[in-house]
Amino acid sequence: MNGQSSVELWEWAEYDCPWCYVTTVRLHQVQKEYEGRVSASVRFFPLELVNGEGPPRDILEQECWQAALQENGARFVPYPAIDWPASTLPAFDAAWAARQQGHRIAMDFDLKVRRAFFADGRNIGRHDVLLDLAHEVDLDFARFERDFASPMA
After folding, report:
1. What pLDDT digit, counting tens, does each position of 58-112 carry?
2. Residue-wise pLDDT tens digits, 28-50
3. Which of 27, 113, 115, 149 is the least buried, fewest Cβ under 10 Å from its Cβ?
4. What is the rounded end-to-end Cα distance, in angstroms, of the chain?
């Protein structure tokens, strides 16, 4: 960009927020068009650390349908399981582990986690689910597993 620095977009993200999911889908849709000029970064902001608990399921389910109307690329399905995540903190630890392998991998893993929750009804608070998701992304799994076992070490 003629010697000018690029712009950085920050998303302050919560994994069970449907609006954050919509934002992530949109960022992925436009990333190639703005490559080299704009970079997008996810900043972790788990609300359960602020509020002492995650947002209520009934409120999130209402917001999902409002968010779904805003973005066709963000697929939402009713969460089918009684296995609702008690915490999204494991998902943030997994995202941090993916981030250790580079920005592109981190962004791909981040979207995979959101889709797993909103589009596939998977419990992103479970370590086994997050390990399965990591297998679906092009990363060094042994390194991911080690970093995930001891986040921010």
Report:
1. 999 899 989 999 998 999 999 887 889 999 999 999 999 999 999 889 989 999 9
2. 888 778 877 887 778 888 889 88
3. 149
4. 36
- pTM of this structure: 0.88
**Residues 6-17 as b or e (16 or more Cβ within 10 Å = b):** eeeeebebbbbb
C-alpha span between 144 and 135 (Å, rounded): 10
The pair of structure tokens assigned to 137 is 């992304």
Provide Rg for the chain, Cα atoms: 16
Amino acid identity for residue 53 in this structure: E
Domains of the chain are: 7-149 (3.40.30.10)
| Among 21, 79, 12, 15, residue whose Cα is nearest residue 48 | 15
